[in-house]
Every structure is written in C-alpha cells, then in structure tokens.
Amino acid sequence: MNALTSYIKHVRAEFVHIVWPSRHKAIAHTLVVVAIAAIITVLVGSVDAVLRAIIGYMIGA
C-alpha cells in the first residue's frame, strides 16, 4: 500500500510539469485527425469497391 501511495504522489507531482495545449490548438489538431480519418475511410472504401467489382467479374457473380 505504501508503494501505491508513493506512486500517486509522484504522479500528482508530474502533473505540474504538463504543458496543456490551448483550446484553439486542441480543436485544430482534432479537426486534422478527423479529416485524415475521413480521407482514409474514403480511400479504403474505394479500394474495397474496386476489388469487389474485380472479384465479382472474375467469378461471374
């Protein structure tokens, strides 16, 4: 139990050193991540559709 208490005290002490991003920067980074996820979704969906069409043509479905 002593080790857990010591660990929690160290964690609390480290929180003082954290540099949190500004609200504007956090929103900007979130929008970048959402945009990249959307682009990857479209690309993977397109590849899936093309491969599905090719395989369907090959097996005659």
Explained architecture:
The protein has two helices and no strands. The chain has 61 residues and is mainly α. The chain is elongated and about 70 Å long. It starts with a helix and ends with a helix.
Alpha plus pi helix count: 2
Total number of beta strands: 0
User: What is the CA–CA distance across the termini?
Assistant: 65 Å
Give the percentage of residues in beta strands: under 5%
Largest sheet: none
Low-confidence stretches: none
Helix content: over 70%
State the secondary-structure class: mainly alpha
Average pLDDT, all residues:
95
Overall geometric form: elongated
Rg, nearest Å: 24 Å
* H/E topology pattern: HH
Give the arrangement of secondary structure elements.
Blueprint: H1 2-15, H2 23-59
Keywords:
elongated, 61 residues, mainly alpha, 2 helices, single chain
Quick recap of the structure?
By secondary structure, the chain is mainly α. The chain is 84% helix and 0% strand.
